[in-house]
């Protein structure tokens, strides 16, 4: 099977590329002229230089491809110009779906996010059938991913064979950027995590997320969304697990949301808007933190053979990789 893969230079995309290569896929990887290709080392594939913001650069890459796996996304919780994020996440997805149809590509797997779901403050576990709308989305990242997912669902309604995967919070090695989740690990390892908020996440092993991308190419039902999750944990439980791995003390002070919001407000204005740097905390993060992002992966287990794996080994692998690559002492 010849597969065109976007996002392979990133965290999740790197692991998807490895999983596809291990299954013998003939890979064609999208890279930009400015891409860091370190995550592609050791992966047998051809590369195609192009950009999701420039659809004409992608047309030739789809020639003779059997499938597209669209993992690439602008994943930031703070951005000076949100139009850039919407152009990459929404317009880029719409354009790639259209180009794949025109090229006669038989299968399209779109990597969405659990961020498009409607989570609750009481910690009730949600699934793909939990009602949700655009007004439930907090911040530009969630809104852009929700709108992009709507493009994928619309294409499926029109008869295109599109499968949608919704990973929760992947963790593991090779998070080079790092992602916002990886930054939590880096900050903890650097001793920059003195307190925590009363929030919760679903943490998933990135290797299992990648393996399920391969399964979705043949087992996924067009138009279906599949949550790919692992363990539902409070932030405090996550920090305690990191402490058990590293010996670094886990914070014991819980910050009220009002205090966290005040800190984030000044971080955005002083660090972000005045100094032009990425703030350490954002109002979007704090608002997201009011909800516990707990999710069920039963649908993916039943139809894709997804496995809920213990996250401790993936957390250890992430910590070892961050340390080995100079992100933390």
Provide the descriptors you would attach to this structure in a database record.
alpha/beta, three-stranded mixed sheet, 16% strand, 10 helices, seven-stranded parallel sheet, globular, Rossmann fold, 329 residues, 12 strands
Can you offer a commentary on this structure?
The chain has helices spanning 11-22, 82-103, 139-157, 180-189, 206-219, 235-246, 257-274, 283-289, 298-304, 312-324, and strands at 2-6, 26-31, 46-49, 67-70, 107-111, 162-167, 169-171, 195-196, 200-205, 225-228, 231-234, 253-254. It is α/β, with parallel strands linked by helices. It has a domain at 2-172 and 204-230 and 296-304: NAD(P)-binding Rossmann-like Domain (Rossmann fold, 3-Layer(aba) Sandwich), CATH 3.40.50.720. The strands form three sheets. Strands 3-2-1-4-5-6-10 form a seven-stranded parallel sheet, with helices on both faces. A three-stranded mixed sheet has the order 7-9-11. It has a two-stranded parallel sheet with strand order 8-12. Strand 4 (67-70), helix 2 (82-103) and strand 5 (107-111) form a beta-alpha-beta unit. The mean pLDDT is 92.
